[in-house]
Structures
1.
Amino acid sequence: MSTKASRVTARLMLAPAVILLLGWMLVPLTMTVVFSFQRYLPMRGGFQGWVGFDNYRSFVTSSAFWPSVQATLIIVGSVLIITVALGVLLAVLLDQPMWGQGIVRILVIAPFFVMPTVSALVWKNMFMDPVNGLFSHLWRLFGATPVSWLSEASMPSIVLIVSWQWLPFATLILLTAIQSLDSEQQEAAEMDGAGPINRFFFITLPHLSRAITIVLLIQTIFLLAIFAEIFVTTQGAFGTRTLTYLIYQRVLESQNVGLGSAGGVYAIILANIVALFLMRIVGKNLDR
Amino acid sequence: MSLKTSLGLASALAIVAASGSYAQSPSGTVTIATVNNGDMIRMQGLTADFNAQYPDITLEWVTLEENVLRQRVTQDVATRGGQFDVMTIGTYEVPIWGANGWLVSLNDLPDEWNADDLLPAIRDGLTVDGELYAAPFYGESSMVMYRTDLMEAAGLEMPDAPSWEFIREAAAAMTDGDVYGICLRGKAGWGENMAFLSAMANSFGARWFDMDWNAQFDSPEWLETVTFYNDLMTNYGPPGAANNGFNENLTLFQQGRCGMWIDATVAASFVTNPADSTVADSVGFALAPDNDLGRRGNWLWAWSLAVPAGSQSTDAAKAFIAWATSSDYTALVAENEGWANVPPGTRTSLYENADYLAAAPFAEMTLQSINSANPTEPSVQEVPYTGVQFVAIPEFAGFATEVGQEFANMLAGQQTVEQALERAQAVTTDAMEAAGY
């Protein structure tokens, strides 16, 4: 119904937001792409000429590249499995009517509001420290030798920390989904003689499938970029160097902006492949 | 004469007068980026004395944690940001930045500042082509700190200059239940385990690079160094050593869990301080160990103050540096906080001061350690670089941290010595190729 004038006005009104968004996204992206084709070493006087695809080649052929992709996939995969599995369970539990429901829900969601650096520090120093940590005291209580978690079981430790952080997010989304589940349907199934396990697998879980795909999609995007937990705990040692951490090492520790930018472009490509893949699944699920 | 011209004349005179006074006494705002350790915080508390001498200079402090400081000042100096007028940097940065022309020469500090009083090893480390680019605030080397009571119980006597073999024997003799014979750095990082291992490797005759900048981790000397280190720590070290850096080991030593600890000389004042240390009255000191090859396993480091080339108030910044690194400042700290708390390791005169020697039982060993370090010829073999526990090239911090991770993995039992060295060699070779050597 819009007149030409109102369309123009609408565009004008939208323009600042669109320009800001584009600038926000395009300027850093373009700079990263431009840097990735340069030999750019700030500690050696900055720009030192164009090198074509050299940075891309040396980033991939470096001995650290494939292990880092592997580490990234392991962390993302394990955290997704743990958070979704436990998230569904917690959501079902929290959906039950009980005394103090509000407080319990807030407590369950609380870890999500703790900053990643802080939670990593707390886990590292208060739980996982082999001399003074809570786990080491527990181990000693039972006469066992304390485990130095972050060096001997570094990957499980990081997966544990990150899962602890993201579990509330999964729980929250899944809980709201469960609350939209029609209780009459449940009752009907019960009257037809379906036990609690059958009801869970044939009614609750299918009902949750959309919410689960959303959780998977959003978490994957954020988990591909986790950094603080690794920086604070292992600093990329003991096989926990992810792609993000490798890029950080190349740009800031080695002061090689060109090489790091090439890594950044790879990370963008990887994230987009994953996102596209997930979007299609979500799309399929939403169509049903 | 009209009102206008007289006003103009007056203001011109005022400007002349102002610039005249500027030439004599510097003025302006000096922004200082510094690290958050005890000595630097103490300095901030004493600035009233500086302002009494230079009322026209305003000091602004930006106090940061070590890693953050390093990133901030590096970015600022590389992009000529001009945010800071005085930067706190170490002996690793000074040769690189000085050679890049990023720092203002301090050769013209006043005569009473007395550059000849600086310890020669420290002064050499901060000089590039005859220009002094930074003034040392405090200097440190590394040495053996050990428990005299445990040594006695083990029936051993620590020589002033022990060998690595003796350290191994002593560690074996002192390891008992909750007490670990030796605590060494294991945490990955160029300033953590690699500082220790690079210095240790020097005493085993190893080097980072040959004269053509080829990485040397495939050499028998490195194999010997790392094997010795790994055996020592696996048999007589604390659990979880792969996560122990300076602070973790300090805590362990203060709790009485370590027989020996080879680390920075500045730790001496912490382990002998009865307020923090349970073993304060039974700590002895010795030079870092050697293998009779002519180099000891000790490093050399100095936190120093420098003026970046982008600074707008160079004169005021120099006035501040001259104040903060002078022997008068040392006397000022002694007067307020006692002699044991003065910043050590920069000036010969401090080690000739009877009051200081009486207050600091570790002074003699610190001085000997610093003097025995040789940043220009760190290894018995010829090397193309300067630096004892580092290689003064811009890429070092990056690849040394990655190499450190390989050795930390090894110490955690996730790979063998041979695998760690092989990967270290690959990482270093890659990085050097990328850097264009």
2.
Amino acid sequence: MTAPFEPDRGYELNPAVALRPEPFGALAYHFGNRRLSFLKAPELVELVRGLGSHRCVSDALAIVPEARRDVYLRALASLAAADMIVPQTAESEGA
Amino acid sequence: MTTASCQTAPAERVPALVEQFKGGLAAPICLTWEWTYACNLSCTHCLSSSGRRDPGELTTAEMRSVIDELRAMQVFYVNVGGGEPTVRPDFWELLDYAVANQVGVKFSTNGLRLDAGRAQRLAATDYVDVQVSLDGASREINDAVRGDGSYSMALRAMENLAEAGFANFKISVVMTRHNVPQLDDFAALADRFGAQLRITRLRPSGRGADVWPELHPTDQQQREIYSWLTDHGDRVLTGDSFFHLNALGGSPLPGLNLCGAGRVVCLIDPVGDVYACPFAIHDAFKAGTVRAPGGFAQVWRSAPLFAELRTETSGGACRSCSEYSVCQGGCMAAKFFTGLPLDGPDPECVKGYGASALPAVGGGLPRSGTDHSHRSREVPLGMPSVRVPAKLCDFSPLAGT
């Protein structure tokens, strides 16, 4: 199963996942396990799309107002549990 | 859990999501696309009154261009049905084309074409799911609804799929008065084949209108379905079709629990007409056609009917009911085809409001807009009745091919 979510690591959108923009945010579809998830805020969508360009999740969260960081951290943890976001590979870290 | 079907339980739960869905999405999540009205069977409850092929059905080229459009709209998967979709000569070609374009396909079949070789090919194809229809866990109960030989055909298809290693295919059951007592048997059958059980609600749509009064589950059986789903719901798919039962208890069934018609759900029929829901093949719910300029996207985004369905419904007489927030007034199609007002109770309302309203409904119920039923006559030759086809090609769409 999926490894535990570690905010000190870098994550990125799973390449097997597509994001479809929706009025509420986005619908995430995982082509591998055929699961749907809903990203229920445009801010969260932006965060997820940008995740890969940050060294770690905590850095990525810097764009979010402090008061909401815990909420988004939990949202990211559940996306990681659903395999929607995955730890950056050595290759992507180097890129 | 969430799967690529009409089960849309979100990974994280925020009540506002259902409110968002009421306003409609950029593209459907649960798109049913019927590829042909032709069918080798004549199930008594067929929701699309299928049987004969429509001469105007979408051509291969038109089908491909709809797939292109679905890809562009990011419709990640479609539920393909019919009729029996596999009787289209281009079925496998279109299936491959859809999958190659990242439009996953879950297709419903009575098992007709699923021989051992085909099952192996399907098992090796990523992004395809198969749903075999079966309406009885025993031959007698199934064949009474789906026709002689249909039980054997479905079982053979399931054996082939299981043998080919196709894990987790679906066994799809429409719940009737006769098969509710078989719920555990269906689950055992699914386990035997490494399949997943899917149960859905019988709607009075298509030919279903003719048999609904005798076949729909009794009040007691509705309670049995609800409690069975509460116990087994995590392993069983329902296409979110039993949300009207939520009024029975404290724990809502998993799923969206909202009429998704025109909001997250719609139907493209074999001739390209777009309806709000697969159970509502009637002009009143026709939003447009994929053949018009602008195609499917234009219909989904701009059809006046869909705009209307995406507004808050008044709830009518149901609004004052204590259970309205969980049942949402039930199924639009079930109300429509039984002659009940759309803002009134569902005919199977668990509080009994639908049943008490039904006797007041006059004759002349609305009928589905299209009827492709085989033109056969029921000839009473003692028991069982024998269907005599008017022409050989009416009996089987395969005749002459």
